[in-house]
Amino acid sequence: MPDLRDWWRRLRGHASADAHAAMTDAHPNQAAASLRALLDDGSIPAAIRSGLASDFARLESMLAKLERGEVHIAVFGHVSVGKSALANALLGSDAFAVGVLHGTTQQAHQRSWREVAGNGVHLIDTPGIDELDGQAREQLAFEVAGVADLVVFVVDGDMTQRERDALATLARTHRPLLLALNKVDRYGEEECASLLARLRERARGMVHAEDVVAISAEPAPLKRVHVDAGGNERTQMIERMPEIETLRARLTAILEREGRTLAALNASLFAGRVSDQVGARIAQARQDLAAKVIRQYCLAKAIAVALNPIPVADLLAAGALDAALVMHLGRVYGLPLTKTEAGNLIAVICAQLAALMGAIWGVHLVASALKGMSAGLSTLVTAGAQGALAWYATELVGRAAEKYLVAGKSWGELGPKRVVADIVASLDRDSILREARTEILARLRGVS
């Protein structure tokens, strides 16, 4: 994934004209290639692709948007702050509903605005955030950011804590932000300047100072009183034009300079999030499958040990099953192991286990010898305990091998001693032994 924040920093004025031109052409192509690679990745399991169907559909939509050269701008803020009025003022038509009812806009709406530098620019009007709790507000903010390449955050006075929280949430999406102080026709010149200064201070680190602007999307009508020759008064309400030129000029400048890169930035960020989700789900699916595999081998080894009447031979059979388990786990994690590699890995694990659990292996050997000395008569007495110990040992071997494979055939910085010790400490031995003994005895009674 390209260094997205570096793109934005350099485009804000730190790149030469030639470098900017090269980036403007390269970024949409890089983003489109990234999206195509993710969409066409044949290694993604069908179940995971199906579980993320809506995200993959959005990737398709974003790729098409990139190919069409579109840029999307979202207008965001709390209820009745003037978001729809601002969108209409930019469009020059009443495309979005504006009303006095609390929360006129209930869902996001989109309209085409204008052609800027050959790009089709679309405005998205969003629902207000007043009546949403923190979790819902954050979800809405990320959904808006997911379809918008740039966000205009609208306020009509000093920011409330809820607005500041929402702005911070949007800022964490790394989406370019503009902060518009609306309804400035209600304020005097000094009061407006003071409000802008406070907003710039509150938005420091989230919005560039030059991107905090004053507007009046729908100024209140101007009231004029006329007195005729006879002394009669007549009131006239004069509609005033929106005062949004500062914001319009700022948007146009950004779009002409950075429009295509903004779309590429948005698409790449979203593709990165989807890729992370895919990776997390694949890892979870592998972990779930590995847990089932380990349990199957634990049961197989426990039964093999419990049923084998020949002293020590049961331990040899158990070793072969451990090797098969490790090789099976290698296939689960896409890191196949040879018999030699599996044997070496088990040797390392068992060496650490022996140092930690010598007593368990001693009991295991005593139980094996007891089975032979009693000519099999005490099998039911010893098999449950011996099989349970075999189960537990295989659980430890499997978990340690899994850690090794998850780290890419490496023990990581901790080394095998610490990894094995952590696994032993994390597993509830008594619980595992009780579960194993219960299942083994049930199987043995079924056999007999």
- Main beta sheet: strand number and arrangement? 6 strands, mixed
User: Which CATH C-level class of the largest domain is it?
Assistant: Alpha Beta
Which overall shape is indicated by the principal axes computed on the Cα atoms?
A: elongated
Total strands: 8
Give the CATH H-level superfamily of the largest domain.
Answer: P-loop containing nucleotide triphosphate hydrolases
CATH topology of the largest domain: Rossmann fold
Quickly count the helices. Answer: 14
Widest sheet: strand order?
Answer: 2-3-1-4-5-6
What's the number of structural domains? 2
Proportion in β-strands: 5-15%
Sequence of secondary-structure elements: HHHHEHEEHEHEHEEEHHHHHH
Structural class: alpha/beta
| Distance, first to last CA | 61 Å
The gyration radius over C-alpha positions equals 34 Å
Show unreliable segments.
Answer: 1-23, 96-108, 368-377
Q: Mean of the pLDDT scores?
A: 78
CATH 2nd-level architecture of the largest domain: 3-Layer(aba) Sandwich
| Helix content estimate | 55-70%
